[in-house]
Amino acid sequence: MHLLENIREAFRSIQSNLLRTVLTALIVSIGIMSLVGILTAIDAIKSSLTNTFASLGANSFELTAKGYTNRFRRGGVQGRTYPAINYLQARQYKERLGDDAQVGISAFITGATEVKAGGLKTNPNMQVVAGDENYLRIQSYNLEDGRAFSPSELEVGANVAIVGPEIKDKLFPNQSAIDQYVFFLGQRFQIIGQLEASGSGMGGGGGADRLVLIPLITGNQLPRQRALTFDIKTATTDPDNLTFIMGQATGIMRAVRGDRLGQEDSFELERSDSAVATLDSLSGNLRTGGFIVGFITLLGASIALMNIMMVSVTERTREIGIRKALGATALQIRQQFLIEAIVICVMGGALGIVLGVAGGNAISLFIPGGGAFLVPWLWMIIGLVICVSVGLASGYYPASKAAGLDPIESLRYE
């Protein structure tokens, strides 16, 4: 009997014991499904959460003057305080960085103002922020109604505003706030847009409800007692480029700020991807735990497969004696049973992989931001390798037992 004939004989044996083969394959498929399903679910959930974090600004960093907003001490010595980043420096940085990333410039005007309209007024805790054309996108604020600032409004510093839902509900409860006029900080502003409520999405942020957003130049022209502090946030859609862009930003900002060669940076870069780093660590631990759980399940399936193969050897003892009497060697008998075990494992494993991938992606649908179908090629390949390994491990002892049977005693077996 050649190898090809052994493979054919294995398939004939599987076909003649179809019910037992199906049940055995199902045992293996459950083990593989648990292994691939858990690992796929973890990867799918991680992918969904990573996309969500990216939409929240996780793949971004902020530029602030060193020591200006938070003086630090090292070894008991107070760190040097540098001048705040002014409007001209912020604009130059944005222009020089170009299209490599999105840069949003904003300035916090006040966090305790009262907005009035038509004899009504809000609580005196509304926040007024001046921002550019990228502010809404980088902060992940979505418009529920109206529009964003036009280029001309941003360029000339028009008195227009985008307000949060709490302001709209307080001043215009039964009508649209678009094109209405409100008064705050001693000036009149026309509402052109309304933000979504914070609870409508993960990217809403706690400040969206009470926020009043005005053009950056408009905020810079408002009467004030002290110079504004400008916040610069740089974001990229590709997290792999974040480190490279941070290096570019450092060089550009040093030139803009006039930092001399050998002098320390007069500014700080603070990454906003700590949530992603935590997610990577957590997903690694979950993947290890999931692999252990799936491996234990698969171990139980391999024991069940070995038991069924032992029963198969016992039932086919007379058949083995006939084949040996016709000239089959011990190696050929061993190959036949090993191939049979491997084929059963691959059949069950293929079904388990399909069910595991489908189940893992289905679990990720319950996570906010989920929905993209993930095909885990790595886990699928590992699953197939494990199937063959389980077939070899579970079938070797029964195959060796079959190969070692005495042909005369086997022919007498009933």
From TrEMBL:
Similarity comment: Belongs to the ABC-4 integral membrane protein family.
- Which spans are transmembrane here? 21-42, 291-314, 337-357, 377-397
Q: Taking the first listed entry, what is the main subcellular location of this protein, grouped into a coarse class?
A: membrane
- The reply to whether Transmembrane helix figures as a keyword in the UniProt entry is yes
Residues covered by the ABC3 transporter permease C-terminal domain: 292-407
Q: What is the lineage of its organism?
A: Bacteria, Pseudomonadati, Bacteroidota, Cytophagia, Cytophagales
Compartments (UniProt record):
Cell membrane
Checking PANTHER family in the record gives: ABC TRANSPORTER PERMEASE YTRF, MEMBRANE COMPONENT OF TRANSPORTER-RELATED
> What protein name is recorded for this chain?
ABC3 transporter permease protein domain-containing protein
What is the membrane topology here? Multi-pass membrane protein
Q: Key word Transmembrane present in the record? A: yes
GO terms, molecular function: transmembrane transporter activity
